[in-house]
Amino acid sequence: MVGERDTQGMLDRDACLSLLRSVDIGRVAWATDDGDVTVVPVNFALAGEDIVFSTATGGKLDAVRSGRSISFEADDLEPALRSGWSVLVVGHAELAAETDPAAGQRSMPWDRRPKPYVIRLHLERVSGYRLPLHGGGVSIEQGFL
């Protein structure tokens, strides 16, 4: 049936965390006050099972301070082989205290502008999907390219 996802490629929490550890760029998303959704790339690291990233003042920090639900997505795709994976996380985020060990766990941002705040995203829901080699017959209607 169109719209139903093939569960064969679904990943459990441990597999998702393992894949997240293999990349250092993902995307953070949150709903704004006017109902729009903002999505921005970030360099990140895992501290235990939490996602940690740095930020400056602005939208990400405002979303965290206002207690908004935060989504995070990371993936790795190999277009030539039509394979890859995607992991989606939903959780709540907070500013990490200066004494929080997570402050030292963040990855080096590509953007060298100062990012004095460290955000710790606590994973509440984690889901992932692996697209098998050569696409495995998964269609766009099933939610993965």
Topology:
Layout: E1 10-11, H1 13-20, E2 25-31, E3 37-43, E4 45-47, E5 50-55, H2 59-65, E6 69-78, E7 83-95, E8 117-131
Antiparallel strand pairs: 1-8, 2-3, 2-6, 4-5, 5-8, 6-7, 7-8
| CATH architecture label | Roll
Number of separate helices = 2
Which radius of gyration do the C-alpha atoms yield?
A: 16 Å
Query: Rough shape?
Result: globular
What's the CATH class, please?
A: Mainly Beta
In CATH terms, the superfamily is Electron Transport, Fmn-binding Protein, Chain A
For the record, give the distance between the C-alpha atoms at the N and C termini, rounded to a whole number.
17 Å
SS-derived structural category: mainly beta
Estimate the strand proportion.
35-45%
The H-and-E topology, N to C, reads as: EHEEEEHEEE
What's the overall average pLDDT, rounded? 83
Total number of beta strands: 8
CATH topology: Pnp Oxidase, Chain A
How many domains would you count in the coordinates?
A: 1
Protein name: Pyridoxamine 5'-phosphate oxidase family protein
Pfam family, one: Pyridox_ox_2
InterPro entries: Pyridox_Oxase-rel, Split_barrel_FMN-bd
